[in-house]
Amino acid sequence: MTMPPEGHGTRILGTGSATPEKVLSNQDLEQILDTSDEWIRQRTGIRTRRVVDQSTGAGTISLACDALENAVANTGIDPLEIDLIICATCTQEMTCPSAACRAQARVGAFNAAAFDLAAACSGYVYGINIADTLIRQGRHKTIAVIGADAMSTVMDYSERSVSILFGDAAGAAIITRDENPERGCIYQNLGADGRGWECLYMPRREIDVPESDKETPIRLGCLRMNGREVFKFAVKKFLSVIETTLQEANISIDDVSQLICHQSNLRIIESARERLGLEKDRVYVNIDRVGNSSSGSIGLCLDELNQAGRIREGEIVLMVAFGGGMTWASSLWRV
């Protein structure tokens, strides 16, 4: 938890995103699962989600590369000016090399260091906070942050409790130094509680499956989730992180122009919006169209808002996420 130091500030130079063309609708899932469009919409708010075509080799790396390429085009920056690339993901095809290195090669950012970051659905906000801190400390000048996950590649579509939730997407932002120290991240919060890891995890070996989850029919290598416990954690942590962030930054919720939430479940987002007393147009929602895309979620929302002209200079934006680990993060920005 930090407040911005004196000196220079940061600004979001531009954004980009990527979603696959292929659409997986609730009606499509009705054909392969014991479920219905109404059942899914009532519990999650999701109507469709985007999924990669794995037969073409598409996946997390291609989404990350496309999103960064689009962010570079949006800013008009020379890729050689980027000196660090952070890619938040939990579904990379290879741990070596990193997805960040692959994205560096695609856009020609050959002066940039590159690494991947694993914090599940909180990953993009973790990355944004790290980027702001490194730039303020003078260690870097221009950093690209990517959030990318191809969640469909780790879904067991024979089991409905998890597979109905997730889709694939990537979002990227290019952050650079600004001479105004009041600009950029006003306050940030990173947190984790590893005691809850069993609630949301992807085991690759039988030995990694806890005794309490031995009967789960989901295949190894696929995402497993205790939906009830994750929902309880999300509802409680989501609102508390927002309230703590506003209190510590001495900012009123009325000062926030956009609340950009991780798109986990429409019921969670709507509950928080109502308790905070926010109008619908100040809490962005796209889960109905794209599902929960983990690390890609907030980056995609940020880019869609930016492209629509709804991220305006001088306004205050709050990004909030929570995910497996269990992890959570907030990032309050004066853009």
Structural account:
The protein is α/β, with parallel strands linked by helices. It has helices at residues 26-30, 37-44, 60-75, 99-107, 123-136, 160-163, 227-249, 266-276, 287-290, 296-307, and strands at 9-18, 23-25, 48-50, 84-88, 113-117, 142-150, 168-178, 184-192, 200-201, 224-225, 256-261, 316-323, 327-334. The strands form four sheets. The chain has a five-stranded mixed beta sheet, sandwiched between helices. It has a four-stranded mixed beta sheet with strand order 8-13-12-11, sandwiched between helices. β12 (316-323) and β13 (327-334) form a beta hairpin. The longest helix is centred in the last third of the chain and has 23 residues, at 227-249. It starts with 8 loop residues before the first strand and ends with a strand.
Keywords summarizing the entry:
Peroxisomal Thiolase, Chain A, domain 1; alpha/beta; 13 strands; 24% strand; 335 residues; five-stranded mixed beta sheet
Rg is: 19 Å
CATH topology, what is it called?
A: Peroxisomal Thiolase, Chain A, domain 1
**Beta fraction:** 15-25%
Q: What's the mean pLDDT score?
A: 95
| CA-CA gap between termini | 19 Å
Class by SSE composition = alpha/beta
Overall geometry: globular
Helix count, per DSSP? 10
H/E topology pattern: EEHHEHEHEHEHEEEEHEHHHEE
Q: Quick one: how many beta strands?
A: 13
- Number of spatially distinct domains: 1
Q: Which CATH class is shown?
A: Alpha Beta
- Give the full name of the CATH homologous superfamily: Thiolase/Chalcone synthase
Largest sheet descriptor:
5 strands, mixed
The largest sheet has its strands arranged as 1-7-6-4-5
CATH architect. name: 3-Layer(aba) Sandwich
Q: Give the proportion of residues in helices.
A: 25-40%
Spans of at least 5 consecutive residues with low confidence: none
